[in-house]
From TrEMBL:
Domain of life: Bacteria
Residue ranges constituting the Peptidase M24 domain according to the UniProt record: 178-385
Family: Belongs to the peptidase M24B family.
InterPro entries: Creatin/AminoP/Spt16_N, Creatinase/aminopeptidase-like, Creatinase_N, Pept_M24, Peptidase_M24B, Peptidase_M24B_aminopep-P_CS
Alphabetical list of SUPFAM superfamilies matching this protein: Creatinase/aminopeptidase, Creatinase/prolidase N-terminal domain
Source organism of the structure: Lysobacter cavernae
Taxonomic path: Bacteria, Pseudomonadati, Pseudomonadota, Gammaproteobacteria, Lysobacterales
Creatinase N-terminal domain boundaries: 35-169
Protein name in UniProt: M24 family metallopeptidase
Keywords in alphabetical order: Hydrolase, Metal-binding, Metalloprotease, Protease
Record keyword Transmembrane present: no
């Protein structure tokens, strides 16, 4: 049996957990002001007179307001000069004001009114002619704004990706600290989840434990997601429907994460319950080598796609692939992470975004052996002035996946 796999119970492990003893501080008002200033600078490069940010991760980034997008319009309008304005339903004003982390004007609308006209009025008051719109806004929001702007403002809508990605891709020290806490918490949950494994335990039981463990540590709302796969199910990157029971010799793949202050963790560990076969051990070691090769290729200025290429080169030399062919790596090597669990940029061929300090990525060049098993080791790193730094130490070996 691998070190740390089995031998305990869910009750024992949960009893040992409590609120995180070293909480990272929340994002400060001063930092949000710097984000708005940065957005205005990027708006100027885009030639935009105003920025419209829809409810969701982008709104939280700029305002601190955690508010899910729905059919009711909640947006921030940021003019090139002057205070930002929040447009929202009248009956939600109290809740929105309680969560707002910046100084902003408020314009509210009643249920029978057209909120898009209210946004257009704000734009007209600020003389905005070219307006940058949140790329994550749903189509009905885009259309509602387009009609209102066409009717009331002599201008045009353009996509605001240059602004939103330009602000969010490079994390500040405060953001890195929140992500570090989330990553540390999830790795601790992984260790304890491995300890409760026993023959016959179900994937549902393990998922329930992981959610309870994240809650016990103080994560925002427990697990944000949790994939638990045993045996052949591990050959499918995101699993298969139905319950599985653990048996001796099964590959175990657990991929889970949480949020702290809105910032995500996302860690995968794969190991064997019982004695590993030769092919399981060989593929696990190759996966670890590919993960390390991706990490070692990181340097400021290097295009994102080069990191994916570095991982694939390791696999192809061993006879896997090429490209997305199986057995081999069926997806990109990594994704950006922050307030969204998957966000730009991406470690994949075709993404030529140059790496820069503060950018954060997953490193997970999964190997799939169809019909048998899959091995995915996923940790995250942030780009530094000289290379990369892990948030969490990678698995040391198949026999010691947690060190």
């Amino acid at each position: 049996m691998s070190h740390g796999i089995g031998g305990s119970t869910a009750e024992t492990e949960l009893a040992a957990l409590g609120p995180w003893s070293r909480p990272a501080p929340p994002i400060r008002t001063e930092e949000r002001a710097m984000r708005l200033a940065r957005a205005r600078s990027l708006m100027a490069e885009l030639g935009a007179d105003a920025l419209i940010i829809n409810a969701g991760a982008n709104l939280r980034y700029f305002t601190g307001l955690s508010w899910a997008a729905s059919e009711r319009l909640v947006v921030m309008v940021l003019p090139r000069s002057g205070a930002p304005v929040l447009v929202c339903p009248e009956f939600e004003l109290g809740s929105l004001q309680a969560g707002l982390g910046i100084e902003a004007g408020l314009r509210s609308w009643q249920e029978h009114e057209n909120p898009y006209r209210l946004v257009a009025d704000v734009l007209r008051e600020h003389g905005a002619r070219r307006v940058a719109l949140d790329p994550q806004a749903p189509f009905f929001v885009v259309e509602g704004l387009r009609r209102a702007v066409d009717a009331r403002v002599e201008g045009m809508l353009v996509e605001a990706t240059h602004v939103t990605d330009g602000c969010r891709m490079r994390k500040s020290p405060a953001e890195l600290a929140l992500m570090q806490q989330a990553m540390d918490m999830t790795l601790e949950v992984h260790r304890r989840a491995a300890a409760i494994l026993a023959p016959g335990i179900t994937t549902t039981q393990v998922r329930r434990f992981i959610d309870n463990a994240h809650r016990a540590l103080g994560a925002d709302g427990g697990s944000t997601f949790c994939a638990v796969q045993f045996g052949e199910a591990t050959a499918y990157p995101h699993g298969v429907p139905g319950e599985q029971q653990l048996a001796e010799g099964d590959v175990v793949l657990i991929d889970t994460g949480c949020q702290v202050g809105g910032y995500h963790s996302d860690i995968t560990r794969t190991y064997v319950f019982g004695k590993a076969s030769v092919i399981q051990a060989d593929v696990w070691q190759l996966e670890r080598e590919a993960q390390q090769a991706a990490f070692d290729a990181v340097r400021p200025g290097v295009p994102c796609e080069a990191i994916d290429a570095a991982a694939r080169a390791v696999l192809e030399r061993a006879g896997y692939g090429p490209d997305y062919q199986l057995p081999g790596l069926p997806h990109r090597t990594g994704h950006g992470i922050g307030l969204s669990i998957h966000e730009p940029a991406y470690l994949v061929r075709g993404d030529t975004t140059p790496l820069a300090p503060g950018m954060c990525f997953s490193d997970e060049p999964m190997i799939v052996v169809p019909g048998r098993f899959g091995i995915r080791l996923e940790d995250h790193f942030h780009v530094t002035e000289h290379g990369a730094a892990w948030f969490t130490a990678p698995a040391r070996s198949l026999a010691a996946p947690f060190g």
